[in-house]
Amino acid sequence: MDPLLYLGGLVVMFLLWIKVKGLDYVIVHQRWIFVCLFLLPLSVIFDVYYYVRAWLIFKMCSAPKLHDQRVRDIQRQVREWSKEGGKTYMCTGRPGWLTVSLRVGKYKKTHKNIMINMMDILEVDTKRQVVRVEPLANMGQVTALLNSIGWTLPVLPELDDLTVGGLVMGTGIESSSHIYGLFQHICIAYELVLADGSLVRCTEAENSDLFHAVPWSCGTLGFLVAAEIKIVPAKPWVKLHYEPVRGLQNICKCFTEASENKQNTFVEGIQYGLDTAVIMTGTMTDHAEPDKINRIGLHFKPWFFKHVEGYLKGDNTGVEYIPLRQYYHRHTRSIFWELQDIIPFGNNPVFRWLFGWMVPPKISLLKLTQGETIRRLYEQHHVVQDMLIPMKHLQAAITRFHQDIDVYPLWLCPFLLPPGRGMVHPKGQEEELYVDIGAYGEPKVKHFEAKASTRQLEKFVRDVHGFQMLYADVYMDREEFWEMFDGQLYHRLREELGCKEAFPEVYDKICQVGLLSDICNKLRGTFWQHRGSEVPPDLKARPGVRGKKHHWPSLDGAVAPTLQWSPDRRRG
Ligand SMILES: Cc1cc2nc3c(=O)[nH]c(=O)nc-3n(C[C@H](O)[C@H](O)[C@H](O)COP(=O)(O)OP(=O)(O)OC[C@H]3O[C@@H](n4cnc5c(N)ncnc54)[C@H](O)[C@@H]3O)c2cc1C
């Protein structure tokens, strides 16, 4: 009885404390209480549910059978939208809080939500070395299946919850990207439902323009319903070499050399200060030296970035063998280093042993429960940015990051950028080595101001022909945005495929300053519709308009609609 009374007393005191301080104060300043008591257990329930579901579906082989039906359902929704007059833009119906990106798109409330309930792995073809997946299949699911049968994706972005759709339509990167490129570069086919409801497959050879335009378009060219992705044989271990490096020049030199060396399957740097970093290089191996095995994924192990920092503090190099899947998800438990701001004692050994198995809380649940105050605090006093910079400008870039935001650790991940005609490619016709500089945390510069400081960084990135990842807060104006990204192919396809009436422009969808212009643009579209029978100028080249059959070969042949222009169709 005594322990029960004691516990009851504690609960009463806790509730009184919340009453005195106010719930808002507790959620903002002692967020860990809420996270530990509610979000961690909920996250476990979520994970177990999704794991069992994915396992059952794969075992019953039901995904391929259901897939076609799900695609038809999306086509039906798009056609219904069209029949109703296409009054608002369309977007995926996945709630904004469920995504990894910190932004919660307000457009979800105003646009027509197309429900895409597709989260399965459809087929693993080891002969062709290809896996075919639905867009909501996530990285945790993919590694769980592929690694268990001896295969892997050549580029496997770290966080379990990142989805194939998000990684194709946004972007994805991993420490093997210096060999294979970004996530989009390991994809060999996309299947999309277009604005007219037709289903289209695109590859390098078939509908090649669309294939190149899809990555980074953030769902503004069509709905992804499946992707075919290359797979490569996997080995059970990663032999990882840790090298502490001091001096900025030295860091840049060592990191560039490691990234240029194709013998390294994995290359990653964590920079702990302007002059200190640890550079890690790894290869996959079949065997491990038993005394050097480190199972970093076990719940009681230190957070990976803290473990790595140990090599810097001790000023010693080291070699370890890490199980492949645990290596891939090395930053999952601490969400890189974001979790230290939410659970400050999360890396304490007692916490790790007792509760480490529940960590991390789901990013989606963190977003769902953050409330307006925390969201604003985060926006103003927290940076989450990934800037992609040509490797030759690495030193200038790190100096710039230091002056403008001073956030450490910085994540350094090299990648190869092949020439292309989509939104993101190097300036010339040659492939070029780039580096993703990821800054996640609280800026230490006194003069930090979210908009002004980010704009300064964005200008630097444009000047060196770099790119900003679009999941983060983007403060560029439209002109600056299209100076950074190549919009030629993208805009042409939006005209040809009738996207201008169906989806917002990517800038309007993701940019801070673009959010308002999104609404204005749609109003302008509605204005055109009210003007009567004349075809809006941007629709003149649209396939199907004025009775032309559209030229995108469709997978569902006769069932696919060919949009015929008629004034009343536009008004519904
Ligand atoms: C905390 C954090 C950690 C991160 N870690 C990594 C990392 O380790 N490695 C890495 O590479 N990146 C990382 N990122 C960036 C990440 O790659 C992008 O945020 C990614 O685009 C988000 O993936 P998501 O699955 O949540 O996609 P979403 O945010 O759901 O989607 C991204 C865009 O694609 C569109 N889209 C999604 N599915 C479809 C579809 N089926 N049809 C049409 N459009 C669609 C959405 O509308 C949206 O515009 C991280 C981001 C954050 C905030």
Question: If you had to describe this structure to a student in words, what would you say it looks like?
Answer:
The chain is α+β, with helices and mostly antiparallel strands. The chain has 5 domains: 2-59, no CATH class; 62-233, Uridine Diphospho-n-acetylenolpyruvylglucosamine Reductase, domain 3, CATH 3.30.465; 237-373, no CATH class; 382-475, Alpha-Beta Plaits, CATH 3.30.70.120; 488-569, no CATH class. Helix content is 41%, strand content 18%. The chain is built from 24 helices and 17 strands. The strands form 4 sheets. The protein has an 8-stranded antiparallel beta sheet, with helices on both faces. Helix 5 links the parallel strand 1 (90-92) and strand 2 (112-114). Helix 2 (23-29) packs across helix 3 (31-60) and helix 17 runs antiparallel to helix 18 (450-463). The longest helix has 30 residues, at 31-60. The radius of gyration is 24 Å and the shape is globular.
